[in-house]
Amino acid sequence: MPFITVQIIEGRSVEQKHALIKEISEAAIRVLDADPDNVRIVINEVTADDWGVGGVPVAISRANPKTS
């Protein structure tokens, strides 16, 4: 039974999350030859303050984008 966990930064719409669940499920069914009734998808949403990239919280990097 495939159990797939996805972590994303919060802010996506319900429609986007539903589409993501559908697309990932279809990929697991196709690639793993899994029974659709056995595919499980969980989306964990994390705040931008709780997600860091390069030592900086995403909330701060979004507020202060680098200028080129």
Walk me through what this model shows:
The structure is a single chain. Helix content is 37%, strand content 26%. The protein has 68 residues and is an alpha+beta fold. It has one domain (3-63): Macrophage Migration Inhibitory Factor (2-Layer Sandwich), CATH 3.30.429. A two-stranded parallel sheet has the order 1-2. Strands 3-4 form a two-stranded antiparallel sheet. A hairpin with a 2-residue loop joins strand 3 (52-53) and strand 4. The mean pLDDT is 95.
From the structure above, extract its key features.
single chain; 68 residues; alpha+beta; Macrophage Migration Inhibitory Factor; two-stranded parallel ribbon; two-stranded antiparallel sheet; 4 strands; 26% strand
**Residue share in helix:** 25-40%
The residue ranges in which pLDDT falls below 50 over 5 or more consecutive positions are none
What's the number of helices? Answer: 2
Question: Reading side by side through the largest sheet, how are the strands ordered?
Answer: 1-2
Domain module tally: 1
The N- and C-terminal alpha carbons lie at a distance of: 47 Å
Topology overview:
Layout (H helix, E strand, L loop, with lengths): L2 E7 L4 H19 L7 E7 L5 E2 L2 E2 H6 L5
Parallel strand pairs: 1-2
Antiparallel strand pairs: 3-4
